[in-house]
Structure to design on (133 residues):
């Protein structure tokens, strides 16, 4: 299954992907940097900055700052990652920033069409990533 994350709410998309990964499907997400986090952008930025600064630089925990890895980490949080079945499911996930040429002409599911239109404030993963660096 190939999912286009453009304008998709990160949490809703992550839970959908996690459920399907646990069923044994292989999933590839394109345009990960175009996914959104709803709510006050300043609050979201503070939350991710607090996560990133937690712990020590040598021993972790290590939180990603690139858009594709941020989406991947959100999905990992919804899987039983510390158990073998969760790790196996997580290995079947591929996340890409942008849309690779290999997916041209293939059937891509636009996740934003499965959800309501966003009427509140939001921040894109791309913008959040730039502010975290």
């Amino acid at each position: 299954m190939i999912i286009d994350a453009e304008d998709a709410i990160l949490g809703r998309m992550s839970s959908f992907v996690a459920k399907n990964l646990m069923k044994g499907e292989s999933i590839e997400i394109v345009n990960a940097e175009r996914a959104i986090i709803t709510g006050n952008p300043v609050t979201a930025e503070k939350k991710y900055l607090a996560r990133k600064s937690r712990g020590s630089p040598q021993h972790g925990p290590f939180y990603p700052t690139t858009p594709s890895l941020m989406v991947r980490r959100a999905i990992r949080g919804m899987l039983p990652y510390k158990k073998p079945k969760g790790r196996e499911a997580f290995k079947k996930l591929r996340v890409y920033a942008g849309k690779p040429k290999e997916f041209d002409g293939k059937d891509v599911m636009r996740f934003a069409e499965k959800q309501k239109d966003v009427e509140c404030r939001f921040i894109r993963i791309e913008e959040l990533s730039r502010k975290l660096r």
